[in-house]
Design a protein that fits this description.
Layout (H helix, E strand, L loop, with lengths): L2 H20 L4 H10 L2 H7 L1 H4 L5 H15 L1
Helix pairs in contact: 1-2, 1-3, 1-5
């Protein structure tokens, strides 16, 4: 596994934990929601931009992706 892949995985873990906390969900429920809306793939796709931001931006990014796919 490359350094970049490791960093992407950490960003995904942080996004799952942060989203779960902000929305009073379990990490398991959040991961299922992320899979449904392909959040993990989106974080990997936009890693080039997201890794330059604060880690909390991963949570906001996930919220935006979900809002756009639902609304």
């Amino acid at each position: 596994m490359t350094q970049e892949e490791q960093e992407q995985n950490l960003m995904i873990v942080y996004a799952v934990e942060g989203y779960a906390k902000r929305h009073n969900m379990s990490e398991k429920e959040t991961l299922a929601l992320f899979r449904k809306h392909k959040i993990t793939q989106a974080i990997r796709k936009f890693y080039g931009v997201l890794h330059t931001q604060d880690l909390d931006e991963n949570v906001f990014f996930a919220e935006d992706v979900i809002k756009r796919s639902v609304g």
